[in-house]
Amino acid sequence: MLDDFLTRATLGGVGLTLATGPLGSFVIWRRMAYFGDATAHAAILGVALAYGFGLSVYLGTLAVALAMALTVASLSGRGHAMDTVLGVLAHSALAFGLVAASFLSGLRVDLSAFLFGDILAVSRADLGVIWGGSALVAAVLAWRWQGLLTATVNEELAQASGLDPRRERLVLVLALALTVAVAIKIVGALLIAALLIVPAAAARQLARSPETMALGATLIGALAVLGGLQASLAFDTPAGPSIVAVAAGIFALTLMVRRKT
């Protein structure tokens, strides 16, 4: 069954939603959308470094994404204007990544796959990385769920409850970095933030609790993967953007449903 490229693509996309669903909910609650962009853009530099040093793309991407996440997390507590810092870091990392890629023969052709994703090229080894990484992110979020929620709602309340808001923020940024490393081959650096945000935003319109929103975001993400792959096959469109487009369509439907209720 796994010899079918479409089956592997479907399994890879659905596996990714195990992480993007609950993590995307926290991204929305904490207004971290730009943070996701910065980490994803930095991943391109990781791709270039991985090719340059002969490392695994996943390893290079994860290393740079972690460095970006830790840098932003440390700056967030020092009074810097975070939208400005994130803007500088995001675009600088993307620019350095593209410049570095220009020095590597053969990479410029492949780079578009990392910018926009190439889910149809997912291999059996990729499936192991995707499902393993997503399961790890989902397990960490489930383990720290109550603490993360408390710190998200009110940091003073979290401190009064014996929690360290900085630790909870660090858990989130590390989970985000791992998700970016796993997702870059599926939807690409330019669309990772969209896959995190759009399904969660759609689920938010219908959810009655944080838990149902996280579950709903996961289910909507999986539907977007299935619908996007079918649309890509039927209309010969790029698979990654098609998945995000279907997720955006579902978001529009949830807005209509909410207005009628």
From TrEMBL:
<dbReference type="GO" id="GO:0006829">
    <property type="term" value="P:zinc ion transport"/>
</dbReference>
<dbReference type="InterPro" id="IPR001626">
    <property type="entry name" value="ABC_TroCD"/>
</dbReference>
<keyword id="KW-0406">Ion transport</keyword>
<keyword id="KW-0812">Transmembrane</keyword>
<keyword id="KW-1133">Transmembrane helix</keyword>
<dbReference type="GO" id="GO:0043190">
    <property type="term" value="C:ATP-binding cassette (ABC) transporter complex"/>
</dbReference>
<feature type="transmembrane region" description="Helical">
    <location>
        <begin position="213"/>
        <end position="233"/>
    </location>
</feature>
<feature type="transmembrane region" description="Helical">
    <location>
        <begin position="239"/>
        <end position="257"/>
    </location>
</feature>
<keyword id="KW-0472">Membrane</keyword>
<dbReference type="GO" id="GO:0055085">
    <property type="term" value="P:transmembrane transport"/>
</dbReference>
<comment type="function">
    <text>Involved in the high-affinity zinc uptake transport system.</text>
</comment>
<feature type="transmembrane region" description="Helical">
    <location>
        <begin position="127"/>
        <end position="145"/>
    </location>
</feature>
<feature type="transmembrane region" description="Helical">
    <location>
        <begin position="41"/>
        <end position="73"/>
    </location>
</feature>
<keyword id="KW-1003">Cell membrane</keyword>
<dbReference type="Pfam" id="PF00950">
    <property type="entry name" value="ABC-3"/>
</dbReference>
<keyword id="KW-0862">Zinc</keyword>
<keyword id="KW-0864">Zinc transport</keyword>
<feature type="transmembrane region" description="Helical">
    <location>
        <begin position="170"/>
        <end position="201"/>
    </location>
</feature>
<feature type="transmembrane region" description="Helical">
    <location>
        <begin position="85"/>
        <end position="107"/>
    </location>
</feature>
<dbReference type="InterPro" id="IPR037294">
    <property type="entry name" value="ABC_BtuC-like"/>
</dbReference>
<dbReference type="GO" id="GO:0010043">
    <property type="term" value="P:response to zinc ion"/>
</dbReference>
<feature type="transmembrane region" description="Helical">
    <location>
        <begin position="6"/>
        <end position="29"/>
    </location>
</feature>
<comment type="similarity">
    <text>Belongs to the ABC-3 integral membrane protein family.</text>
</comment>
<protein>
    <recommendedName>
        <fullName>High-affinity zinc uptake system membrane protein ZnuB</fullName>
    </recommendedName>
</protein>
<keyword id="KW-0813">Transport</keyword>
